[in-house]
Amino acid sequence: MSNNEFDSMTEEEEIEELTRREVEKGKRVSNLRNANGVDYAPWMNITEEDERNIRQQIKRRTAARRAKQVSEQDVSGSLLMDSQAQELSGGGLSYKVLGSDVELEWGTTSEEGTAGFRVSRRPAKTEDWQTIASFETWGPLASQGPNGGFYRYFDEDIGAGGWVYRVTEVDNSGEANDLCQCLVEVQTEDEQRAAMIAGIGFGVVAVGSVVAASFLDPLNGYN
């Protein structure tokens, strides 16, 4: 099923359909047997907990896909011509999430006739754009000259959730050109804490596995 067909569904319907497919794939694999009649992959049996985990993963992916789709609406200028290519080429808008702050970075190679840049944002799945910074009121966003330059903007204390950021180039005559944009997911403090704990837990397990392997290696100590 293509993304266009998914778009005719509600988000919940898409999640349910994708979950059903993933569960069915797991069930098909778990039912396979080799020539001796032995189960091919008995560990693939899907429990209720497995299905809940699959649904949660698909829910996150579906929300991200739909948010990205929304983020590419209502654009003009260079962004309208090639929004996806700009992201893939690395020439678009990059970001770092630092707690509840977002750091934006972008660069240009040519700014002939450019006066400066504006930075806008909106909550994902809305069209409520808000200009949060402009070369007209903040000097670092003024053009660095005909050969372009590198720019950084720090958005402080942004709320949790999905946010779409956009950089707009403005020329000396006042004409605006949407240059690049990106979708940013800001986690709550609880989500950040849970991710940190999970990361630490994974590291401990990985180190433990290495240590255990060194004791179990029959050649350990003879190299």
What's the layout of helices and strands?
Blueprint: H1 3-7, H2 11-30, H3 48-71, H4 77-89, E1 94-98, E2 101-107, E3 114-123, E4 130-134, E5 150-155, E6 161-171, E7 176-186, H5 189-216
Antiparallel strand pairs: 1-2, 2-5, 3-4, 3-6, 6-7
Task: Note down, in words, how this protein is organized.
This protein has 223 residues and is α+β, with helices and mostly antiparallel strands. It folds into 2 domains: 1-71, no CATH class; 74-186, Immunoglobulin-like. Helices cover 40% and strands 25% of the residues. It contains 5 helices and 7 strands; from the N terminus they run H-H-H-H-E-E-E-E-E-E-E-H. The protein has helices at 3-7, 11-30, 48-71, 77-89, 189-216; strands at residues 94-98, 101-107, 114-123, 130-134, 150-155, 161-171, 176-186. The strands form 2 sheets. It has a 4-stranded antiparallel β-sheet with strand order 4-3-6-7. Strands 1-2-5 form a 3-stranded antiparallel β-sheet, with no helix packed on it. Residues 83-91 have low confidence and may be disordered.
